[in-house]
């Protein structure tokens, strides 16, 4: 795997190294040893999948509050998504800054989202599926979110938001979040 650290400390873009032949290709998408070499959390406890029927579906921006903060390894396994992460670590030099990365099933690119970051995505095609490896179990009482269009983050989503849950639409302004 090829690890590229982003400008948001601790967040990585990870590309698989494909071994190709007449059958297709083989690529590693997880290796605890390689992740540990880059100082990343290797404690994986849960794997989730999200299927999204229509282009323009927005999910997020979600995170879990401490002590249940989680890191995620996110990969688009069908279609294409604009994946967004926001650094919500108070005291971080990149606090409230975001990164948008296009993830496609064809490329296999992944994004490692550290603890203390919000995460969400916008589907760029119909019938998208996203897979997540998680370092913490889901804890409903720790579930939090920030609004996808909050001016505090200035995210220029690369497509029209057509479908969003009532919960994701109603998150408060970040300035009011503890």
Succession of helices and strands: EEEEHEEEEEEEEEEH
Please tally the β strands and state the result. 14
Radius of gyration over C-alpha positions, nearest whole angstrom: 16 Å
Strand numbers in spatial order across the main sheet: 1-2-10-7-12-5
| Helix-and-strand structural type | mainly beta
General shape: globular
Helix content: under 10%
Largest sheet: 6 strands, antiparallel
Concise description?
Helices cover 6% and strands 42% of the residues.
List keywords for this structure.
single chain; about 180 residues; mainly beta; 6-stranded antiparallel sheet; 6-stranded mixed sheet; 14 strands; about 5% helix; about 40% strand; globular
Q: Would you give an account of this structure?
A:
It is built from 2 helices and 14 strands. By secondary structure, the protein is mainly beta. The strands form 3 sheets. The protein has a 6-stranded antiparallel sheet, with no helix packed on it. It starts with a strand and ends in a 9-residue tail after the last helix. The model has no long low-confidence stretch (mean pLDDT 96).
Give the helix/strand layout.
Layout: E1 2-5, E2 12-15, E3 19-21, E4 24-26, H1 32-37, E5 46-52, E6 57-64, E7 72-78, E8 80-87, E9 98-104, E10 110-113, E11 117-123, E12 128-134, E13 143-145, E14 163-164, H2 166-169
Parallel strand pairs: 6-14
Antiparallel strand pairs: 1-2, 2-10, 3-4, 5-12, 6-11, 6-13, 7-10, 7-12, 8-9, 8-11
């Amino acid at each position: 795997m090829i690890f590229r650290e982003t400008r948001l400390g601790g967040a990585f873009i990870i590309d698989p190294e494909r071994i190709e032949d007449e059958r297709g290709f083989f690529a590693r998408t997880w290796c605890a040893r390689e992740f540990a070499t880059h100082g990343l959390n290797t404690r994986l406890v849960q794997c989730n999948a999200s299927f999204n029927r229509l282009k323009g579906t927005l999910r997020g921006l979600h995170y879990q509050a401490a002590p249940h903060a989680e890191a995620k390894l996110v990969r688009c396994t069908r279609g294409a998504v604009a994946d967004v992460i926001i650094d919500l670590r108070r005291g971080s030099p990149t606090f409230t800054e975001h990164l948008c990365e296009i993830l496609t099933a064809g490329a296999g690119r992944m994004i490692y989202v550290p603890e203390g970051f919000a995460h969400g995505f916008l589907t760029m095609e119909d019938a998208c599926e996203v897979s997540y490896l998680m370092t913490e179990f889901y804890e409903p009482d720790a579930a939090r979110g920030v609004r996808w269009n909050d001016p505090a983050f200035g995210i220029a989503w690369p497509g029209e938001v057509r479908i969003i849950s009532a919960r994701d639409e109603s998150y408060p302004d970040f300035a009011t979040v503890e």
